[in-house]
């Protein structure tokens, strides 16, 4: 069992989805977990997908951790500053782990899905990359100011292979590529203070929003794109991977790198909460069925071997044919 007792973590954007799963997994590892989001006691008024900080808090504490829920609008830098000031005061300056996860662009991406960027209003960029790329930078600034005097810490930034190959449009891809670059360049500047900065790439994650899409027939083309649901990851799986990485004494060996969730899980024998072991997003068994739709029914025959990074950079194998 991963043990993060006496460690303090912050997960931004934890009302549901990946952030909630990470927070619960950190609780399972006995960490003290601060969580942020827009909805404290009831769902955010402009969002049809439910989830609140209080629900996440209950789940984290049930898993074995201590959880402090703080309502924060990550578009407001002053609210973010006060968040870190509160953690500093309550934890005597201690913050060991930051998970940059907050993201508010999912709805905007869904509305703009399959149309070129110039047919959307320019504010699509801000909808996708304000609470996301920009907010990750702001949180990292305040986190590093707490971690450096204590001689160490870890900053995980949730990103996507969409930063390497076309996925959900220009605004999404640019934002994800920038997150990877942000994590890598922060690593250079944080290394003298023993702070690791790592970019995390999940696979296809069965979040509440994705599950909601499965019940909407008009979105069948989106769902078919990503193939066999047996290879989807739960948010909790990502959390277990992050919790495991956070315990490693050699974590600085990973700083500045991209860690693919399924590959880390395989290395450390981590299983998903449903008992599955999802395959890597750079496995031929994952990539070929989403690239060549005719191969989807034969996915089980495709070797589960990883392709070189340069093929993802080329983009042909990683770009879904929709």
TrEMBL record:
This is Short-chain dehydrogenase/reductase SDR. It comes from the Bacteria. Gene3D superfamilies: NAD(P)-binding Rossmann-like Domain. Pfam families: adh_short.
């Amino acid at each position: 069992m991963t043990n993060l007792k006496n460690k303090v973590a912050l997960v931004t954007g934890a009302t549901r989805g990946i952030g909630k799963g990470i927070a619960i997994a950190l609780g399972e590892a006995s960490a003290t977990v601060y969580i942020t989001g827009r909805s404290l006691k009831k769902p955010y008024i402009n969002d049809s997908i439910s989830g609140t900080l209080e629900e996440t808090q209950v789940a984290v504490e049930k898993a074995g951790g201590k959880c402090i829920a703080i309502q924060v609008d990550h578009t407001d830098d002053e609210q973010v500053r006060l968040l870190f000031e509160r953690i500093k005061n309550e934890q005597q300056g201690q913050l060991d782990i930051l998970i940059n996860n907050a993201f508010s662009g999912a709805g905007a991406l869904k509305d703009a899905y399959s149309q070129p960027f110039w047919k959307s209003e320019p504010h699509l960029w801000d909808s996708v990359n304000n609470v996301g790329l920009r907010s990750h930078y702001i949180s990292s600034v305040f986190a590093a100011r707490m971690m450096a005097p204590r001689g160490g810490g870890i900053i995980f930034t949730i990103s996507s292979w969409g930063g390497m190959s076309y996925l959900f449009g220009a605004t999404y891809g640019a934002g994800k590529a920038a997150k990877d670059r942000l994590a890598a360049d922060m690593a250079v500047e944080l290394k003298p203070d023993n702070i690791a900065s790592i970019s995390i790439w999940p696979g296809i994650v069965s979040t509440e929003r994705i599950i909601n899409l499965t019940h909407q027939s008009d979105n069948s083309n989106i769902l078919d794109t990503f193939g066999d649901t047996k290879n989807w990851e739960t948010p909790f799986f990502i959390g277990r991977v992050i919790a495991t990485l956070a315990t490693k004494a050699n974590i600085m060996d990973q700083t500045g790198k991209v860690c693919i969730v399924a590959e880390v899980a395989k290395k450390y024998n981590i299983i998903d909460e449903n008992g599955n072991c999802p395959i890597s997003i750079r496995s031929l068994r994952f990539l070929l069925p989403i690239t060549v739709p005719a191969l989807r029914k034969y996915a089980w025959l495709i070797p589960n071997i990883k392709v070189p990074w340069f093929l993802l950079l080329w983009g042909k194998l990683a770009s879904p044919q929709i």
